[in-house]
Amino acid sequence: MRRLLSIAVVVLAAAVVAARSGIQAPEPEGEKKLIDLKSDLMGPIAPGDSVVFLVGNFAAQHNGAVITCDSAVRYSDMRIEFFGNVLINKNTTYIYGDRAEYDGELNEARVYSDIVKVVDGDATLYTYKFLFNTKKNIGEFADGGVMLNRENLLESVRGYYYADTKELIAVDRVEMRNDEYELKGDSVVYNMATDNAFFFDRTNIWNKDGDYLYADRGSYDKADTLYIVTRNGYILTEKQEIWSDSLHYYRAEDHVILRRDLQLDDAEHKVIAFGDYGEYWKEPGNAFLTRRPAVVSYDLSQGDSLFMRADSMYLFTINENALRRAAAAAKADSLARLKTDFALLGTPHHPAGELPEGRPAADSLGSPRVPAVGPGSPEDAAGPDSLARREVPDSLLGVSVPDSLAVPAVDPLDTLVGDARKAYLKEQAAKLKAAQKAAAAKARKEKLEEIAQKRQDKTTAKLLAQKEREERRLAARKLKAESKLRARQARAARKGKVIPVDSTALREIDSLIARNDREMDSLLLQMADSLAADSLAMRIPADSVDSLTDSADSVYRLMKGFRNVRIFRSDFQAVCDSMTAISTDSTIHLYINPVLWNQGNQITSDVMDIFTENQQITRAEFIGTPMMVSQLDTVHYNQVAGKQMTAWFRDNQIYRNDVNGNAQTIYYMQDGEPPQITGMGVIESGDCSFYIEDKQVVTIVYRKDPDWNIYPMDKIPADQELYLKGFKWEGARRPTQGAVFDRRVRPSQREEKRHLAHPDFPLLKALEERKKRLIEERRWADRNDQVDAATVEWMRALGFEVGQPRESGPKL
How many C-beta atoms surround the C-beta of residue 441 within 10 A? Predict the structure, then answer.
């Protein structure tokens, strides 16, 4: 028995020596490497027991990971349990706990503590149980974890830590925040080195400007402040909602690139834009759309919805006053820099040779050095006398004196002290304030003069237009009176009577025309005087100028459409090759083969200008071979053409059409119920007007030498053309709503998203309370220790480098 005990003691002693020296027998190829151990003392838990305890400067190594603790129990070659101040280190990863279990077969260390701490560089993770694979360098937690990394905070119920790639995969009720955004979602992959993140289902992000982003898959690139969404993207701003299957959101530039099934809802202007590719700039509010783009104006208080599409569309928001202010600010900034440059000349802080490039050097007294005059100098090249005295300004007298009597310019601040210095500074500040006030007053005066001039031009144009309209009305009235007088004279002549050429009606009309001229001229003069007086009365405080410059008139919307433009509203439709819409005067301009349909009327011309008010058409001007056509059947069409045409609208229906210059008409008379065509009229005149009621022409007025022919339908000459030159019925091009708009409209989510709860970090709150309680009870310490020097040397002897330097890591 004693012999057996002696053999056991020798074996144990050899084992201790081998453990402390790190010597192991060579392992057969393909088998797992055994765990290296060292300690000051080791022995069986009980006599004859194979379980061995190890204490005193203990360390274990496996797969390059070192584990230190106060004591350990070795159950087998591949299973060890560690107790007290456990530290596991591999490369830059440090894991702190109270107890740990290690299974060499699985290469897994299970770390337990009231709070487990994991540190890697700047990142620190707090959890309650942590599993670390020393071969794959992957950690895992499942009972909640909180990670801090510089300004970043992340928490989740479960997570996976990848030491090699510096990534943390957070899963289940993830919440995150940093100086750029807040996030709530199902799962996030966060890179601790770059602060980049990948996010997945049901991710909600609030950026620091207050905008909201939703995604079911995407990523964040910190270097470019770029959000990339690849599934179900949604952005909510103060005035817009944006949907897209995928998007790139450059938040620093407020620039969004949208791809596939995009929808942009502008709640301020009540416009929704669609497309399969688009770009949007939050400031000033510009957008580009292509790949089946469409725009819908849905302000129903101003009429029915308007649908528009084209091959590509642009929407611009232009703030002219903001542009002017930016230009003025840039100019003021340049002047301020110039003033600073002069102020710095010769100051003690900028001695000669140290001034910014381009500034003249100064002498020791602070005066700018004047280049010497002599042979080879620029002055000598210009030809002055080498003995001539240069004239330099006297800094005290403000006059030129010979250089021999010149007083060097000295900065008063360098010589004045005490109250004198304060008084001088106060005087200079008052002068600067007075100069600034004078400049502001001048700018205000110029602004008011500009406003007054605009008002004058606008009122003058309005009065002139009114005068022209009244003149046309009176001229038409006079023409009608003259026609009646000639008809009376003709009837009287047939009866042998004579009626004088002069008549009371004509004299009355002539009197009205003269009075109209006098009144309009008087109004124009009064208006000029009134505006002159207003320009004086409009001298408003400086703080009110901004309210003027920010007026709605200074901000306007511009929309452009190119190629295959189609417009649909229930009361009118249009097609053309390209179009421009401007909000300043509420006009729509159609170019290249435009066609406009209103009820049963079709109008064509080279160019169309449509004027709207409150989303309703008031008039349309047609320039370049205009023609209006209405279809009676497949053969007969009422037609009117001329040099210029103006259609007037009431309730979005044409009630009058004026044709000016070479007016030509082919018009069919109808009678009976249902209406039957009974005759055709062919009329030519200088001008004409059509008056329409209930989609029917009720009155036609021809002016300037009308020439007409009325034919019964069976008496139309064979050589009489049934169609005017350039006639073309474009019914096949008339768009339907389905041809213009075939998109799915997503309902607004504004209210739902606005009431979403922001991250409140419940795991962090619970952790902070737990830490505070444990520290007060002295049951836990926020450790930050590293591998001791003796263990580092032991590991080096085994061929491993451990205990690499690291940051202390953030603390709660």
Answer: 12
